[in-house]
Amino acid sequence: MNTQQAVLSGFAVDSEQRLVRRAAAGSFIGNFVEWFDYAAYGYLATIIAAVFFPSEDRATALMSTFAVFAISFFVRPIGGVIWGHIGDRIGRRDALSLSILIMSGSTFLIAFLPSYEMVGIWAPVLLLVVRLVQGFSASGEYAGASAFIAEYAPPKKRGLYTSLVPASTAAGLLFGSLLIAWMHTVLTTEEMHSWGWRLPFLLAAPFGLVGRWIRSNLEDTPAFRAMESKHAHKEAAPIGLLLTRYRRTVLVALGVSSLNAVGFYVLLSYMPTYLSTEQGLSEAASFRAATISLTAYIGFIFLMGKLSDMFGRKTMLVFASVSFMAMSVTLFEALPGASFEMMLAIQIMFGLLLAMNDGTLACFLAESFPTTVRYSGFALSFNLANTLFGGTAPFVCTWLIKNTGNPFAPAWYLVGAAVVSLVAILATRAHSGEDFIEARS
């Protein structure tokens, strides 16, 4: 290779790396906004319960708050089909650019909702409507961002790059935890209940606009553009192809995603509430534990993404399922009477187990479907799992504890999800590291 060719080759590599970095930034921001919203809603659940569902029975009010959280997930499969159709037919970039505007706008509106004291029953109704819109728009976010970065990433580093998507969800939760902890420190209880709880939702607007700008200035993925030029056609109805030719793949992906759905919401969204309501930990201490464990979890995710490139997605997911089955109940049983340090260590251990699954799952799902239906297949299976098992997890855990009197019920729920996930992952064929442009496009 002569000097001129070497220089041109270097420019090409630098340009490709810049594109991948920009794609990574575009994938990161949308999930960050989505999960910052869920962090704010989850960590402020007790206050939102008092504002929108006043009741003498604290557990009933909290269950009502989590019920709204769960109901908003029932539009996700519908949203997944629609956003998947847009992403597979028109382009990943256009779907993600539109979804982030709707998602951040609906989250922003939560800050302006009236309380039950102001408008009565209309308060929880309006909260539900806004959460439904948010759930619809968010249904294409995780799947689209994962497909987007997976199709940009070098095949041998796809696991590491795609792990940025679950890391961005944890970063949103971490930022939410830090912000809510700080608010509890500087605001009184009265201020938090009257207006303080509204402040986090205001941040969605500027975050969303930044994400929209980044995504609008990117080209669509190389795999999508190659599919357009290679096939000169797109599937008229990706959902139809999924439910016929790829029905088994969708069912397997749904099963594999169940552990992520239950584990994520139980351990990262519901756990602070569990520690404060069931284990007597103060809200401030609960938020501190969540902050430290989330920081560790983000580091674990990148490690697991790298390991999945080395050992394969299937191996990592099998190990994650078996680990949850073996350790969930034991870790929960160690919580009663534990010191703050012990509770924190348990949360960090759970974060390690969850990262084995989460740091691998996004890439696994992206590799499970061909380019023609990748967005739709990922979105449908992932959102169905989150509708059936994830969004309902805080409500189910609260209900199980209340009706069984067993404070370790969430652990058994995790074990059940791990069994389902293990059975599903054992039925799969590995596609780790395939070239999306050359294989199954």
TrEMBL record:
Record field: transmembrane: 35-53, 59-83, 95-113, 119-138, 159-183, 195-214, 250-273, 285-304, 316-338, 344-366, 378-401, 407-427
GO MF, any single term: symporter activity
Assigned protein family: Belongs to the major facilitator superfamily. Metabolite:H+ Symporter (MHS) family (TC 2.A.1.6) family.
GO cellular component: plasma membrane
Claim: rRNA-binding is one of the keywords in the record: no
Annotated InterPro entries: H+-coupled_symporters, MFS, MFS_dom, MFS_trans_sf, Sugar_transporter_CS
Keyword Transmembrane helix recorded: yes
Keywords: Cell membrane, Membrane, Symport, Transmembrane, Transmembrane helix, Transport
PROSITE patterns: MFS, SUGAR_TRANSPORT_1
Name of the protein in its database record: MFS transporter, MHS family, proline/betaine transporter
Predominant location: membrane
Compartments in which it is found: Cell membrane
Membrane topology, from the record: Multi-pass membrane protein
